[in-house]
Amino acid sequence: MGIMTSFLASGIAVPDLNWVGKIVEGLYGAIGNYGWTVVLFTVILKVITLPLDFWQRCSAKKNAKKMEQMKPMLAKIDKAYGENKKGAQAEKQKLMKKFGYSMFSSCLPMIVTLVIFVIMFSGLTSYTTHANVQQYNELVNSYHYAIIVSADENGIEVPENLRFALDGKYKSGTWTEENETALSAFKNQIIEGVKTGEISDEKYNAILEGAKPYVDEFAYENRESFLWIKNIWRPDTWESVIPSYNDFINGTIGVAGISEADKVKVDSGEYQIIYDAVAKGELSGGYAGEAWNGLLILPILSALLSFLSMKISQKTTQATMDPSMQGGGKMMSIMMPLIMVVFVLMYTAALGVYFVCNSLLTIIISLALTPIINKMYSKKDVNIVNKASYRR
Questions:
Q1: Is the torsion defined by CA of 77, 78, 81, 87 positive or negative?
Q2: CB atoms within 10 A of CB 244
Q3: Is 220 in a helix, a strand, or coil?
Q4: pLDDT digit string (tens) for 89-111?
Q5: Which residue, among 144, 153, 156, has the nearest Cα to 199 in the 3D structure?
């Protein structure tokens, strides 16, 4: 009997959005493109934190001046204490306190960056799950709609209450429970025809296969693409345009949050037909058959811009640090880009858009503010401790 699948996988509940996800939804409603929504959200976060960023950069510049004054004294402490590292560190702390040197201002950028990332990641996760489930429900409905068209094209008489679908153009949000009930009866009629031999297995399979181009067209016309990325809800990698059945029900790559009760409603046979229609479709498919939703551009850009951003930032912050701690900064400039690459490879392209946009804005802000701050402090040498000197 060929692919004996139900035409009737029910829609599943769309997970609620958290408060950050609702902000993203509001911006998306105004812009209409999720990729540009992420860009705008990133810009808004940068603007909100710009005063804090400016204060931190000023503090870093002051720290740099103080560190410049303290370096000879720190060297004397190291020489005086020799192998007594603990005693040397205690003496250094006293000196830094005397100069008003603040380690907190050096750590603040990392703390702020982490907080913003948690906020952004929370919003992206919430809205991505929300959007993936909505996308699934619409694809199921478009498939059911297409079955009616395909049945008609294959010589099956369509009941009057379903003939509205014969224009072949399902539009998002037009499928109702009444339509689903009517299709259920029509489906049972077709299956009964297959059992009695009135409808051949070949015709039955032709109905299923004939529905795929319509689903492919709907997916293409309603896709959430961004630049070269076929589907913003999927990674900019070799991953397929939509999740596989196992990925979808197991909550991987941006579809976490689907309840166990709803997972049961997802018919594997029907999902595979929809997957084939979209992932392998002539219109909405990937760059290489069913694979390659993207071209690995975002992971590469994320790493390069993150590295460049940290190198530019270190020109200011390295001078503010105790020389013995500067090795950690160099290690971070290598580790952070690698961590970002892993995140972008594993998660949705939307997160990659955020990383790229955030790093690019950080570079622009650094290049714009650094000359201003340098000019501000070139006119007044910051010397909190006038003529300070080190005495043991």
A1: positive
A2: 17
A3: helix
A4: 888 878 777 777 766 665 666 67
A5: 156
Residues paired with residue 291 on neighbouring β-strands, in sequence order: 288
CA atoms of 127 and 133, how far apart (whole Å): 10
Contact 159, 62 (CB under 8 A): no
Residues listed for the chain: 392
Q: How many CB atoms lie within 10 A of CB 193?
A: 15
Phi, psi angles (nearest 5°) of residue 288: -140, 80
Instruction: Say which amino acid occupies 73.
Output: M
Residue 198 in tokens: 């009135």
Q: What burial class does residue 307 get, using C-beta atoms within 10 Å of its C-beta: 0-12 exposed, 13-18 middle, 19+ buried?
A: middle
How far from chain centre, in Å, is Cα 122? 10
Query: 128: how many CB neighbours lie within 10 A of its CB?
Result: 25
Contact 53, 365 (CB under 8 A): yes
- Whether the CB-CB separation of 170 and 145 falls below 8 Å is answered with yes
Residues 114-137 have pLDDT tens digits of 787 788 788 888 888 888 888 888
The residue type at 368: A
The pair of three-digit structure tokens given for residue 140, joined into one six-digit string? 């199921």
Tell me how far CA of residue 327 lies from CA of 136, 160, 236, 314, 331, in angstroms: 49, 76, 33, 11, 6
Would you give the DSSP letter of residue 229? B
